[in-house]
């Protein structure tokens, strides 16, 4: 490798890291920063770096690994959570912008093949960034969240399949009926072999490696690289594009194929190598192909494509969503959420440019369209869901319910006894004796380290709506809250913070994971645990005669020189919820506390 290529690679990686970090600070995916920085440092603007054969090879490999990682992140079981509504959103959000994109390009003088590529690009939905946006907007426990995830999954998969078929016809050139049948036969054979390999051969390889006690992470990573690039090459051989083979390879690398810790490790390695290293090279160098001249020469086409991308995705989703009977306003919210584009769209557009199907101007327009639509998602989704909230139409998805409680100490068991009257409650504790005591008292308790994902999986953390941390270790409470937020997306998190904690760092971390404090303030937990163990407490129930914030209620008790620990609030229907900060006690609701 020449020194000039090394310098170019260094500049691209540095720029990708800087651009991605800056855009993430304002709440957007790093991909946008990488595209924008590519436009800035590339030939279009500053001209610091130009593409080279080295960068092209690394970028192509990066796309393959990125598509494999996207496949690894997909869970097809999520489709069942949205079913009919998700399918409607996906079809409407893909078909309508696909058709509009096609006609805009062909009516403006473009070829039919270019129109099809543009149609696919405006029809896709960014799957990779949806979970993060939903967590940030506190929407993960709503029906909209499940519809969005299912819709994005179906939309991206549909786009890849259509693109794969289109690539076959492009490579075959002019085709007759026998050629069409041959292409279809090759596609069927590819999907048949890939499915058989993923469902039957790969699990047996995993079982054999486990039997041989092969636990070297490098060995597994190398094996998966061979599988990913092998299926990519097979896809190329049958006339499909390699990204489809990589995507399918990723889909089959699921829980149960290898040991949980091995799967976790190699997933993290794939993330670091693809998202952290090689894929950014692709997105930065994609920015090199963007021409700013489109704002002068093709401004009308740019506005038209951006317009149909917005209108087609949102209106198409609204119209097709009507048979779900969930309401057109919810369809509007789903449409605004699905409006963002991202990795798959840029990959498809880049391949279209490489094959000469679309021009540099069209490619530039598609990049700007992806940037503009993705920037709109948090703004429009926040507006539309707030509208639903005000109307009382934001539906919660009750597939997540119950309380996952860290710590099975006597005080936690007392709180769990109240909450378990109407909800599922599961405890996690690292002390085997304490866990056995909880089981003896009739509770479900998982023994293990809360910071080990295997423990949380054993407790089925992904099924819970609320996480409570009641240990005397503030650091463990905070770290556990961060883990269940980032990995298992539990929407509600309430933890105990002791008075000895420095408030700044704790509050900042709580806010970063959308958590709040139990008992509506700092509490020295150990004396209360001891009282609960010795049964040296009195349980009191009072009814509120007015609406009052939980924090104000606690201050009122302190003003009366009462040392109390509020456990739960009981609503007028008898349902109990934990007493926590940022909540209110309504008139006629009850508070159960101990003194």
UniProtKB/TrEMBL annotation:
Its main location: membrane. InterPro entries: Cation/H_exchanger_TM, Na+/solute_symporter_sf, NAD(P)-bd_dom_sf, RCK_N. Gene3D superfamilies: 1.20.1530.20, NAD(P)-binding Rossmann-like Domain. The keyword Transport applies. Keywords: Antiport, Ion transport, Membrane, Sodium, Sodium transport, Transmembrane, Transmembrane helix, Transport. The keyword Membrane applies. It is found in: Membrane. Residues 403-490 form the RCK N-terminal domain. The chain crosses the membrane at residues 6-23, 30-49, 55-72, 84-105, 111-133, 145-168, 180-202, 223-253, 273-292, 299-322, 362-383. It is a multi-pass membrane protein. It holds the Pfam family TrkA_N. Residues 12-382 form the Cation/H+ exchanger transmembrane domain. This is Cation:proton antiporter. It comes from Winogradskyella rapida. The lineage of its organism: Bacteria, Pseudomonadati, Bacteroidota, Flavobacteriia, Flavobacteriales.
């Amino acid at each position: 490798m020449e020194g000039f290529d090394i310098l170019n690679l260094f500049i691209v990686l540095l720029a990708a890291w800087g651009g991605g970090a800056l855009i993430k600070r304002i709440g957007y995916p790093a991909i946008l920063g990488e595209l924008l920085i590519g436009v800035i440092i590339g030939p279009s603007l500053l001209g610091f770096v130009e593409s080279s054969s080295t960068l092209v090879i690394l970028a192509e490999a990066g796309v393959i690994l990125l598509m494999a990682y996207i496949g690894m992140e997909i869970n097809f079981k999520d489709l069942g959570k949205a079913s009919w509504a998700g399918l409607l959103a996906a079809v409407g959000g893909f078909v309508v912008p696909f058709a509009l994109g096609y006609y805009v390009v062909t009516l403006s003088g473009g070829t039919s093949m270019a129109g099809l590529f543009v149609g696919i690009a405006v029809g896709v939905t960014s799957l990779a960034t949806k979970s993060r946006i939903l967590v940030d907007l506190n929407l993960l426990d709503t029906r909209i969240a499940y519809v969005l995830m299912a819709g994005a999954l179906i939309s991206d998969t549909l786009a890849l399949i259509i693109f794969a078929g289109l690539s076959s016809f492009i490579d075959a050139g002019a085709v007759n009926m026998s050629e069409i049948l041959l292409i279809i036969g090759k596609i069927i054979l590819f999907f048949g072999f890939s499915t058989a390999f993923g469902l039957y051969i790969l699990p047996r390889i995993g079982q054999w490696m486990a039997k041989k006690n092969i636990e070297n992470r490098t060995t597994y990573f190398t094996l998966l690289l061979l599988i990913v690039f092998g299926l990519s090459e097979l896809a190329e051989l049958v006339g499909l594009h390699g990204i489809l083979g990589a995507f399918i390879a990723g889909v089959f690398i699921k829980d149960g194929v290898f040991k949980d810790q091995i799967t976790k490790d190699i997933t993290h390695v794939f993330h670091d190598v693809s998202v952290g290293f090689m894929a950014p090279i692709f997105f930065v160098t994609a920015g090199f192909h963007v021409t700013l001249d489109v704002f002068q020469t093709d401004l009308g086409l740019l506005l038209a494509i951006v317009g149909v991308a917005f209108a087609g995705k949102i209106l198409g989703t609204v119209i097709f969503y009507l048979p779900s009977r969930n309401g057109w306003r919810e369809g509007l919210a789903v449409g605004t959420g699905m409006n963002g584009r991202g990795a798959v769209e840029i990959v498809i557009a880049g391949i279209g440019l490489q094959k000469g199907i679309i021009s540099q101007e069209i490619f530039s327009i598609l990049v700007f369209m992806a940037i503009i639509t993705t920037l709109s998602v948090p703004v429009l989704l926040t507006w539309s869901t707030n509208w639903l909230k005000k109307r009382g139409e934001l539906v919660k998805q009750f597939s997540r319910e119950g309380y996952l409680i860290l710590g099975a100490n006597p005080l936690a068991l007392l709180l769990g006894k109240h909450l378990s009257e109407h909800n599922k409650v599961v405890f996690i504790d690292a002390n085997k004796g304490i866990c056995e005591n909880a089981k003896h008292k009739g509770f479900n308790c998982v023994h293990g380290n809360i910071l080990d994902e295997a423990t949380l999986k054993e407790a089925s953390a992904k099924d819970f709506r609320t996480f409570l941390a009641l240990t005397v270790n503030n650091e463990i409470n905070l770290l556990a809250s961060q883990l269940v937020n980032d990995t298992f997306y539990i929407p509600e998190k309430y933890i105990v913070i002791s008075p000895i904690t420095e408030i700044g760092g704790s509050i900042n971390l709580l806010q970063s994971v959308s958590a709040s404090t139990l008992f509506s303030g700092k509490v020295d937990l150990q004396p209360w645990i001891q009282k609960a163990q010795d049964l040296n407490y009195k349980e009191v129930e009072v009814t509120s005669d007015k609406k009052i914030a939980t924090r104000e209620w606690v201050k009122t008790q302190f003003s009366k020189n009462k040392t109390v620990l509020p456990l739960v609030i009981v609503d007028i229907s008898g349902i109990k919820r934990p007493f926590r900060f940022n909540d209110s006690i309504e008139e006629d609701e009850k508070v159960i506390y101990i003194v």
